[in-house]
Amino acid sequence: MYSYLIRRVLMLVPVFLAVSLVIFLILHFIPGDPVDNLLKVGSSPSARAEIEARYGLDQPLAVQYGIWLGRVMQGDLGTAIVARRPVADLILQALPHSLRLGGLAMLFSSVVGVALGVVAALNRDKWPDRAVMGGVLLGSTMPSFWLGLILMLIFSVWLGWFPVSGARSASALVLPVLTIGLGGTALVARITRVAMIEASGRDFVTLLHAKGLSPLRIQLRHVLRHALIPVVTILALRIGWILGGAVTVEVVFARPGLGTLLIKSLSQHDYPVVQACLLMLAMAVMLGTLLGDILQAAMDPRVRAALA
């Protein structure tokens, strides 16, 4: 198990390097120049050259990438060109808002998704199953930004139950959490249903029926335990995707967070901030994938036997 963990961690190194290179190159190929946001109208070429030299933008791309990657490996994310503040301070200021939103959305999608999946599996091919699967199909195909606008229109504009935007109160989290969580709920419900139906056909379930246990007890205490293995794996894999989904939702609801910081910095062509934000999101996806593999190996005896 320890050797497997070490191999998985080492596999993240080339992935991290490849992602960082792609992020760096894409940003530098986007039209626009962050220096233009700092120069006054009619500034001389010497003023532009001075700013470019100050931020290392006059160096070749390969040199810029090497310097940036070396600083990142030391924990230095650089200084924002437009805000003129350490990028780490901007990230630390925005990240708690995104983590709170993403964490609550994951909790919502986990609890509600598993509950709906259990209801659908216990009522296979009956109207509750069809209702849940219909809702799952609708939730999995609905874009988050469109769903956020619909929820805002109904519950904020028409009914006035929740704030339209901002993060001044706990009620302002309800609609953003629902917007992100409903997509994950659909995925978790579908996987829970399929896993429970598959586990119900195994030999140990037949043995439990032969011992006289009630069908509901068998489903909730034994079948569900086996069905949660793929669910936990999927939830771990969704850690990074939930933070990525928060980018769009934060912009729609005008909430502070990593997404708002990313979009604002992207419009200003503030390379260090955008690179740091994208790198954080990419690392969240990589760490979620690693966590999912570890949890699957820890919970599934078949995987542990294959690794032994």
Helical content band:
over 70%
Name the overall outline. flat
What's the N-to-C terminus distance?
7 Å
Query: What percent strand?
Result: under 5%
Provide the structure class.
mainly alpha
Q: Which stretches are low in confidence, meaning pLDDT under 50 for 5 or more residues running?
A: none
The helix-strand sequence is: HHHHHHHHHHHH
Mean pLDDT, to the nearest integer, reads 81
Radius of gyration: 24 Å
Describe the sheet with the most strands: none
The beta-strand count equals: 0
Organism: Cypionkella sinensis
Subcellular location: Cell membrane
InterPro entries: BPD_transp_1_N, MetI-like, MetI-like_sf
Main location: membrane
